[in-house]
Amino acid sequence: MPELPEVETVVRSIRPDLVGQIIEGVWLDWERALKTPAPVAFVARIRNQTIQAVNRRAKYIVIELSDDYLLLHLKMSGRLYVVAQDAQHESDKWVHFRFQLGNASELRFSDARKFGTVHLTSEPETILGRLGPEPLNADFTLADFAERLRQRRGAIKPLLLNQAFLAGIGNIYADEALHQAHIAPLRTAESLSAEETEALFGAIRGVLEKGIERQGASINWYRQPDGRSGSMQDDFWAYGRDGQNCRTCGGVIQKRVVGQRGTHFCPSCQK
DNA sequence: CGGACAACCTGGCGGC
DNA sequence: TGCCGCCAGGTTGTCC
Fold first, then answer.
1. Helix (H), strand (E) counts: chain A
2. What is the pTM of this model?
3. How far is CA A112 from CA A17, A109, A146, A191, in A?
């Protein structure tokens, strides 16, 4: 589900409800999502810590506490939102974590497929340290991108999905960026010309920024914390459009498996 | 390093 | 309607 724009949307939405709040208690019913520490220690340790900041790194939601960092990953179907503690619980049967806050509200982590993860650690870099650069950061330049590409071989699409190469891109935005840059998903990294590299760099930023503007893409599970859908799905040019006419050249969008992922592209204008 | 595949889970959808 | 197989926005570990 959530890629960089969706996670960024979630973070921006819940931040004002969380910063400054004290975590008074935690309820959970899916221990396997908790990667560290063990449940008993987790509950004891997080209790009474104050939320200092809420940020995003790649697809992780990074909640800075008084003494630790709470890292949440939504994976395919995770949702995160803040509601009153007495708000209807039955309307969402996939809530697996509830963080009770000092003002009678609570942060809920809902996850139908149970792929999501939770870490509580004083050393977030042990988890975040292997991630590649943030594509939207101003200090990540075209030269940086070109240099990183130069060190790689293999198909470009799986490379864009590799979080150690670039952080935050997922299947939708990889397909959209490659389409906008007119690059076929099976092209190898080393085959990209300087012009293509620049086009891809700009396309990655363009689609991610558009995704944030549109508050994410709601296809299946993703919703904004307030329950509304994002609208990026109304601006897809490649993803999910197999069989339809290409909005760029009028050709027919194809779908194939590349790197074990469904991949949508236009054979006539992505070369 | 790169590619292929299995695992982790559940729900939604198309087909029969 | 009911059942079945397939697909899904992600990541990680294993094997070649």
1. 7, 11
2. 0.97
3. 24, 10, 39, 40
